[in-house]
Design a protein that fits this description.
335 residues; seven-stranded mixed beta sheet; six-stranded mixed beta sheet; 10 helices
């Protein structure tokens, strides 16, 4: 039977059967192609490689253009590549105003200025096929031929790090777009601080620093949150893990908002936070500290078993993540 697919990312099984298993063409100059846990393609350009990644913004309304630029550039940076520019596809509902488009592009231009990149082109149209604005960006980056990083590079014994805090983007989106659901439940000062998380959504500086410091694998923590990114990195490398749940950083603002909405911060979309694996002697904490970011060691890569260790001594197996906590909130809130 042809079952409909629910909102959110395709499951790993569906990605394999419906997408990856149907891709048969191969070129010699493609160094990294589609696979579980890999968000970018890498093309051999001689002494350098070109890194390309595409992402839509579907769960946010506030600062839509800013997020669209940074989310795609985060993916190429997670491969150790310096972003150069982006292509933009805007699919806008009929009736969209000139003012909205102008503000959206100004927001994107501001993000590009922060990163030192350009908008290289793209496509813009009004269409009855979308209910709200859909922004899709494709980021291009460059890295040395022997200096890029993939999601599949983790080795047994590597340390696993998380930067900033779990649920980083989701915290900013909830505080900015859904403050009405938090009014009376979370202090206004906490919501104000949480909104500012979106200003820190880029992982480009810390990703490039970690790549130079010897990171074996990196992954921008997007849909599915910490659990989703961890699952994807382990799937890409066919490894296991031992994670100390109490050591996974959750910022005060995230904790307050997630407690109020009964959400798990470790399953909340978290662009702006980076998952890194590296050999134990790699100076990851020191390297990212030099660009003003904190990295927290939360566990180790193991051969096969994927275990989560809780403070009270309980252990459980990491399972394939369900839908992102933001999607779960939106479905409950708006039906």
């Amino acid at each position: 039977m042809d079952w409909p697919v629910k909102a959110g990312k395709l499951s790993p099984q569906k990605l394999r059967s419906l997408v990856f298993d149907r891709l048969h063409q191969r070129r010699r100059d493609i160094l990294l192609r589609p696979g579980l846990g890999e968000d970018s393609a890498i093309i051999d350009f001689g002494e350098e490689v070109c890194v390309i990644s595409t992402d839509p913004i579907t769960g946010a309304a506030h600062r839509l253009g800013w997020l669209a630029v940074h989310v795609s550039c985060n993916d190429v940076a997670a491969n150790g590549a310096e972003p150069v520019g982006i292509q933009v596809a805007l699919l806008l509902p009929e009736g969209t105003t000139d003012k909205f488009i102008s503000e959206l592009m100004a927001d994107m231009d501001a993000a590009c200025a922060e990163l030192g990149i350009e908008i290289l082109g793209g496509h813009t149209e009004m269409t009855s096929q979308v209910k709200g604005p859909l922004v899709v960006t494709t980021a291009l980056g460059r890295a040395p031929r022997n200096g890029y990083v993939t999601s599949s590079g983790s080795g047994v014994g590597d340390t696993i790090y998380v930067t900033k805090g779990a649920g980083f983007e989701g915290t900013g989106v909830l505080a900015s777009d859904h403050w009405h659901a938090l009014t009376g439940k979370v202090e206004p000062s906490v919501l104000e601080r949480a909104r500012l998380f979106l200003d820190q959504i880029s992982v480009v500086p810390e990703a490039l620093a970690a790549a130079k410091a010897g990171a074996s694998a990196m992954h921008d923590i997007t849909e599915g949150g910490f659990y989703g990114a961890l699952w994807e990195v382990l799937a890409a490398s066919s490894r296991g893990c031992e994670i100390r749940i109490a050591d996974v950083p959750v910022l005060q603002e995230t904790r307050a908002i997630c407690d109020a909405l009964k959400l798990d911060p470790l399953g909340l979309i978290s662009s702006g936070s980076l998952l890194i694996t590296a050999p134990p002697n790699a100076p990851i904490v020191e390297a990212v500290a030099e660009v003003g970011v904190k990295a927290y060691p939360v566990g180790q890569v193991t051969a096969k078993t994927r275990e989560l260790l809780f403070p009270e001594g309980n252990r459980c197996q990491l399972t394939e993540p369900a839908e992102d906590e933001l999607w779960r909130f939106l479905a409950k809130q708006y039906g």
